[in-house]
Amino acid sequence: MQSKRWKTLLTACVAMIGIVIGWMLVEPQSVSADPTYTFATNNTFEPFEIQDSKGGYSGKNPGIEIEMLKKIAKHEHFKYRLKPMSFNGDLQALEGGQVDAVIAGMSVTDERKQKFDFSKPYYTDGVMMAVAKDSNIKSLKQLRGKTVSAKSGTSAALFVKNNQKKYGYKIKYFDSSNTMWNDVKNGNTAATFDDGPVLQYGIRTGVPLKIVTKKPIDAQPVAVGFQKGKNLALQKKVNNGITWLKKTGQMQQIIDKYTKSSKTTKSSTASRTIWGLLKANRSALLNGLWMTIQLTIVGIILAMIFGLILGVLGVMQSKVANAISSVIIYIFRGLPMIVLAFFIYMGLPNVIGHKVPLFLAGVMTLMLDEGAYIGAIVKGGFDAVDPGQWEAARSLGLPYHKALVKVVAPQGIKIMVPSLVNQFIITLKDTSILSAIGVMELTQTGTVIISQNMEGFKMWLIIGTIYIIIITLLTWLSNYIQKRMA
């Protein structure tokens, strides 16, 4: 009888995980007659995309491509959602079918034509080289033996890779322009290569670098990218929209606004003091913190359920159950969390034929990664209980499962508490890794804010302090629980 109850409990836990995942997997459908498409975009790629402090594009100057997309969507009668990520993440999301298109200053190259379809081009872009303001470097020939930087997956990255042997430099790759520029500013890299309009706009709005190339290198057309042979209706709408914008002169007006006008300032005009930055970005920081808390709470609850199942399987009187537990724990503890996140968000849709919502991808990553560690903790806690307790319970006639629940588990939980609370703190910190797939949590919020004001040191000091405060509170809670259970 007790065995059946135990199996029922495990079944209920598995069902709960399945219900939560299934419920979150079903994306809300639009009730509008107009179709809705998902566009991946670059989270730090001004002036093509200019995020506001909340990570959205509701500002007066959202960027060339966002203004262009707004007009096309209205003219061609469709709605859209934007998913800001790194450019490399954009391309992977498009390949995996997570998004319908990429609009992120995407250059049309022969290599990309083999994988993607492209809209009509609407801009011609080229690579430029920039150095620190006090640098004596004026040409590529002076880069021999030095380190240069470029953004992963971009035309600039292809250029520096193709010319590495010719000029004899080392290469560092980054996921965002502002991080890459700061690296040059701090003297860690001698020069950076980026899209010409992006560098020009950044310098015009306060980035302390200077461009040393006289004209753009390796100029290429820029267009919207699509999956090969997919979303043909959307491709037609975008092409029609681009043709209409060019014919009416609106396309050139948008481009001139960001490349020639001096009126397009960044959305944040905050004071450079820490208090000024906090005041100006309070709402964005609170939103990022709330997302971090949501991910942590939902992730740790599911991880606890998953880990409990793995831990119990690990101590059951069944070699098959023990083996299943050991293999699952081994796999998910061995996978780097960022690899798991990319697999779930970018790779899984190819298998299941369904897009995985961003929040769900983050929660599943935390559940599997942290759950494996919790499973090991639970198993270790039960194994740490004096074997005499098992023997005494069995000698009193208690079946195995009842002995586990009534005798061993209460003692094992006391042993586990410090490790479980520590894992809870680790889960909180690990949410920052999810910024790699575009989750707008606290770390990603900091990245976006820094792209607007270039105050890297002060903003990361603020973000780090917020994490320290939360972790300190959790540590106090842990100590309180341990005292109560002593």
Describe the structure.
The chain has 486 residues and is α/β, with parallel strands linked by helices. Helix content is 59%, strand content 12%. The protein has helices spanning 2-25, 64-76, 87-95, 110-113, 155-162, 164-167, 177-185, 196-204, 232-248, 250-259, 274-280, 282-315, 319-334, 337-352, 358-384, 387-395, 400-430, 442-453, 456-485, and strands at residues 36-42, 79-85, 101-102, 116-118, 123-132, 147-151, 170-174, 191-195, 209-211, 217-222, 225-227. It folds into three domains: 2-26 and 279-485, MetI-like fold (Orthogonal Bundle), CATH 1.10.3720; 36-122 and 223-267, 3-Layer(aba) Sandwich (D-Maltodextrin-Binding Protein, domain 2), CATH 3.40.190; 126-221, Periplasmic binding protein-like II (D-Maltodextrin-Binding Protein, domain 2, 3-Layer(aba) Sandwich), CATH 3.40.190. The two termini are 33 Å apart.
